[in-house]
Design brief:
6 copies of one chain form a homohexamer. Chain A has about 140 residues and is an alpha+beta fold. In chain A, about 25% of the residues lie in helices and about 30% in strands.
């Protein structure tokens, strides 16, 4: 028939801080404002994972969404949820946790495990007013 | 000026069931879980139809949204709303009603009737946590 | 300190039909319109359960939300989700599944099991355009 | 004419941790689960402040919403936003930052400053799935 | 069984301006800011109408929502939608169109026509950040 | 690493009217219906601005969202908010204020000022049921 795109939404709540170690306190405060607060702040993050492919002739599925959801939980959400994005997450070690960088790191986590269809987009909503998308 | 994309949102509420006739009960239960329930379940579906084109120099419209809305109602929503997607819909006969397959069938229903601009995307939200897009 | 109200949101997807057995087909069609369709239709239902009480001096909790969520799942959501509200649900047997009646039946299911605080409100959203609340 | 209720929505993003100092690590983990993580987690909090009163005959206002919004910002949001609710907030010192306790503390912050009408409700949404209300 | 509350949501888009004729331009600008703009501004208004009563033993309905929706359309929405709230609406003549005053005027429009149950609340959302409720 | 897309959401409330001067009243009424009302109507418009680029190695930012937000406010939102789109906006002079035309005019306003990354999309939501996107 052709190619469809299916998207699964997941959630995680986490703390983070924007801070460049090699900069002075002043420069960090100037660039990141309140986001540099040394005692952290946090967000409810909403994650959308989109895959593309052709539906199976029997099931009509591009992918079993339960399988996709469990994969996202295992590789991404369980590692991020109720954690500190600067300190607690193996796949973010050494990475400034801007949403741009988080989204690209989530792509790296998921892409090798998507079977039978292709990862198309990672979208991450940080607040009601901003979100980032990455297409690989 | 260039090409714009305009999107109209519509709604329908319907029952369906995911079930492959040639499979055993056990295999259906294993693959589709609760979605295979023989007494049906249902959803509030949200449908987004996007067309693209150049705005008319006088009206500033790619398409008259009232015309688009009436077309979607006549060809799609009136046939799906408060119906059973496995049993009641002429254009879904013989089609497993996964959202992927529904989205592609809606495209076939609408595409020949879009005049003066082009159908670009059909998006269908099945639950708060998943949706499908099709671009033809 | 005083009394607080805490609310937990849950979801279920179900099929139903509005139909009075003792009425003729015509009267059913006249009163219930498309909602009387013999092949069912369905909705994504959103359920809000509100309890009230005084926060515990140590935990600051009126109720442990994990406990409340599991109670709602066991007594209500697991019985309704992906089921047929006219046929599959023990606590709706013999009850016309209007949202008004469903909400009052959910209250009866939950109220005896709420410990250490009091059930205050059951709210059920059937579509984007209508919902029902019941306060006991 | 009679009494109206007007509500203003505001936002803040913050980190917190649920932890009772006098308890063991084990008991904290058992009661609060991932919310006890020593490296913090966080949320996008949505705050609704409702006041009640009779509209002014000239302006039709219960309260000037710009005044209410600035009051909420000064007394509440500026103190909470991008901060750590366990460490950074003067009016939460010594208070377990459960949403129940935060809501009651916000009431104490605002109530003395509402002039010409009465504070009616503080509502705080912590995640998509839970919120607390307090009516004084 | 007891009393339930059912709510119907409707929409209208309208222009308005906040301006007291007997005041100077300066005082109007000072009190109402940009809302006093002489060339108008506008909103997408969302209206919630809640009625309360006991469900009918046969239908399980407090009120037929189609009847309620048509009543709201005839008495309220058709008069407000795509109109100017200062100039075009019979039931707002001589009334400063603050949301507080609009909500009370909508109550007066609807209350005499609600049969078999009682009007409980009119809620009107003017922007994402503010709304008014009136309970008669 | 590669290219990311970041989106900022802003709001404005405005009045407008759809009307072609060279047409008769009748033809305007026929084509635009209630949108041609001579006393105006209005909307809460939601604006999404998406830029694309590579994150900075230090900050992890494609663009500083505070800078983007201020730019959108200065060049777009402050000119549109609480104004009349047919009369009050310099960059819409002589332009029929359909959402298609507004979106393309907003692109022209912003595109020359985006530095260090590229403007990718302007999306404007006019009502709950329709929106327009423009990609340059």
């Amino acid at each position: 028939m052709g190619t469809c795109y299916i998207t699964r939404k997941e959630h995680f709540n986490a703390a983070h801080r924007l801070y460049v170690d090699k900069w002075t306190e002043e420069r960090n405060a100037e660039v990141f404002g309140k986001c540099a607060n040394k005692n952290w702040h946090g967000h409810n993050f909403t994650l959308y994972v989109t895959v593309k492919g052709e539906p199976d002739p029997d099931t009509g599925f591009i992918i079993d969404l339960k399988v996709l959801s469990e994969l996202i939980k295992e590789k991404v959400v369980d590692k991020l949820d109720h954690n500190n994005l600067n300190m607690d997450v193996d796949f973010l070690k050494g990475i400034m946790p801007s949403i741009e960088n988080i989204v690209m790191a989530i792509w790296q986590q998921l892409e090798p495990h998507i079977k039978g269809c292709k990862l198309h987009c990672i979208k991450l909503i940080e607040t009601e007013n901003n979100y980032v998308e990455y297409f690989g």
